[in-house]
Amino acid sequence: MNGTNGVNHGSPQSLAQRTCAQCKSSKKKCDKVLPKCGRCVRLAIGCLYPDLEKLTDSEPGNEGNDSRFEEVFERLRRIEAQVFSPQPAAHDGTEPQRSLVELARSHGIESPNPINWTLEPGTLKPQYMSLILWQSILATLDEHKATIHGVTRVYLSQTEQWLPMISSIKFEKELALFPQLISSDSFVLLALAIHLVTSPPVDHPPAASLAESPWYRKCKYLFQYYVGFKQPNIELVQAGMLIALFEFNQDIEDRALTTLGICCRLAYLLEFDEVMMKHSSQDLGKLSADDEEVSHVSFADAGTLAHHVSCTDHTNMDGSYPT
Predict the structure, then answer these.
(1) DSSP collapsed to 3 states, the chain
(2) Of 111, 240, 265, 279, which one has the greatest count of Cβ atoms within 10 A?
(3) Are 114 and 104 in contact (CB under 8 A)?
């Protein structure tokens, strides 16, 4: 052994049974020294041994929601290790990235090639976006040291009081599914927008401005993707209105009106106007849960918010919500 691993050779070294993920993906020789092989130490990169990951996953004590969150993070780390490998392996049709293949099959994806995601956006399929969406909300909550229940509690006690647009029954059902990571994508995107609009500016990660905030950018990017590639749904309209509210309150150029315009177009595609005309004379208590939610997220709400945005002097804005 060449001693580049910084290990005391006077004592026996522990060796892994298999090559580390980085050396395997780069088709380089691995000395299998634990906890990091010599090559990974020299290159100052992460060193992951598949055998150790399996042992870690099977240890007692990692129970409940925390273990499920950690499982998602671990899967995403494996993908990142492949995508950002300094010497990615050539695709010769022999043995593709095994951990990635297993992850992809669990999501119904055949023959994934995420290395191309950074080079060719056309390879970014809807199944991958679902993973990216979940990673975004979990990473954001972890980074903010927040919980989904804490974020939604703040939202329901503040923003929802003056801009009511969420069906409590439907919302609570999706919220109950979140710890098991089985909430719908539309709810997860809405939750990301709720976190964005309820987070104080001082809590955002360091950035040149809030327009460059990673939390804002990931929320807006994902919203735009789902607008362009998914079927319209009411949560998409709700998320867009919250993003527009954030853009207005934080004076992010003139993006709020554009975002609201997208929301109005989505509402038209969902035939909100038809629902409102159909039930205009009915008591809200007699409407279905979906129609009641539509009655909250109406064109009038979007128009009121748009009017407030267009008529308010941004130079006098203090960042507070309208009363």
Answers:
(1) CCCCCCCCCCCCCCECCCCCHHHHHHCCCCCCECCCCHHHHHHCCCCCCHHHHHHHHHCCCCCHHHHHHHHHHHHHHHHHHHHCCCCCCCCCCCCCCHHHHHHHHHCCCCCCCHHHHHCCHHHCCHHHHHHHHHHHHHHHHHHCCCCHHHHHHHHHHCHHHHCCCCCHHHHHHHHHHHHHCCCCHHHHHHHHHHHHHHCCHHHCCCCCCHHHCHHHHHHHHHHHHHHHHCCCCHHHHHHHHHHHHHHHHCCCCCHHHHHHHHHHHHHHHCCHHHHHHHCCCCCHHHCCHHHHHHHHCCHHHHHHHHHHHHHCCHHHCCCCCCC
(2) 240
(3) no
Burial (0-12, 13-18, 19+ Cβ within 10 Å), 31: buried
Structure tokens at 278: 């159909």
What number is the average pLDDT over the span 247-263?
Answer: 90
Residues 89 and 43: their CA atoms lie apart, in Å, by: 17
Q: Is the pTM of this model over 0.90?
A: no
Which two tokens mark 104?
């992809």
Domains in the chain, CATH or no CATH each:
1-56 (4.10.240), 163-316 (no CATH)
Q: Give the model confidence (pLDDT) of 112-157 as tens digits.
A: 555 555 556 677 777 788 888 998 999 999 999 999 999 999 999 9
pLDDT band per the 50, 70, 90 thresholds, residue 16: confident
Which residue is it, tokens 């989505």? Answer: 266
